[in-house]
Design brief:
Helix content: 25-40%
CATH superfamily of the largest domain: Glutaredoxin
Order of helices and strands: HHEEHEHEHHEHEEEEHEEH
CATH architecture of the largest domain: 3-Layer(aba) Sandwich
Oligomer: single chain
């Protein structure tokens, strides 16, 4: 896992170093500049207490106070996104659902999931649609998911306490925010962060077991993978994401070259 995190960080650093492709080739202009993306990484603070009095609404329109979820005696997987997102949010939620289906823990008994929308335009109907898209394949899992919407001030209080930054691009209507989940201990204490996408079921299992026992982990390696920059209408990425994709290709070619060179050395041995 550390190797994967290091590779992802290297990809982002290489992407930032590479010259930008022409904007016309990679997408439409946005109001957010790549120079400000560093401010959109998780501000990790394991051990922080999340506010208990944040009031949100579930898919049925019922009010849900965060304290009522913290007091159930089970750890929570807390994920922030926006439910009508057409970029990386779906990947985060889809990967999370797929990983949780293979975790040898009982949803609703050993853990629950709290998905909170950062978009004030999301409504309870959008929360219900989110469950249908990502969690209804497993009825056990669907019953342990709390998809919640809320007023901007309430959501911002919870996100700020969890160290989750986000920013709306007024030009595109998309939200820029980091990818990852927060594991929360019973009572509402941040236990640890799992960053990026493609969650390892073993990482989730061990993290949930630790969170259930009240353990507080260390700060995770930063992976600045933003849910931002893809234009679904044009099918294109903006300059920052384009550089990341170029970097991924460059490192893939480099890795392939190393494999070929190693095989050649082995073949040449007497």
């Amino acid at each position: 896992m550390r190797t994967i995190q290091a590779l992802a960080l290297a990809l982002w650093m290489l992407a930032a170093w590479m010259p930008a492709a022409p904007a016309a080739a990679l997408g439409t202009p946005s109001a957010l500049l790549p120079s400000g993306f560093a401010d959109l990484a998780f501000d990790q603070h394991p051990g922080a207490r999340l506010p208990r009095d944040v009031v949100l609404r579930d898919g049925g329109g019922r009010e849900v106070a965060t304290g009522s979820l913290f007091d159930r005696g089970r750890p929570l997987v807390l994920v922030f996104d926006y439910f009508r997102c057409t970029t990386l949010c779906g990947v985060v939620l889809g990967d999370l659902a797929a990983a949780l289906r293979t975790v040898p823990l009982s949803p609703g008994k050993d853990y629950e999931v709290m998905a909170v929308s950062i978009d004030p335009e999301d409504r309870p109907a959008d929360a219900r649609a989110l469950l249908d898209r990502h969690f209804d394949r497993d009825p056990r899992l669907a019953g342990a998911i709390h998809a919640l919407v809320g007023e901007p001030r309430e959501v911002a209080r919870l996100a700020g306490a969890a160290g989750f930054p986000y920013r709306r691009d007024e030009a595109t209507g998309q939200y820029a925010h980091p990818a990852g989940v927060v594991l929360v201990s019973p009572g509402g204490t941040v236990s640890r962060y799992i960053l990026g996408v493609g969650y390892d079921p073993m990482d989730l299992r061990l993290g949930l077991v630790d969170a259930a026992g009240g353990a507080v982990g260390s700060v995770a390696d930063h992976i600045l993978l933003l849910c931002y920059g893809y234009d679904p209408a044009e099918g294109r990425y903006n300059a920052a994401v384009g550089r990341l994709m170029q970097a991924t290709g460059a490192l893939s070619v480099l890795a392939l070259g190393l494999v070929i060179a190693r095989a050649a050395r082995r073949t040449g041995r007497p």
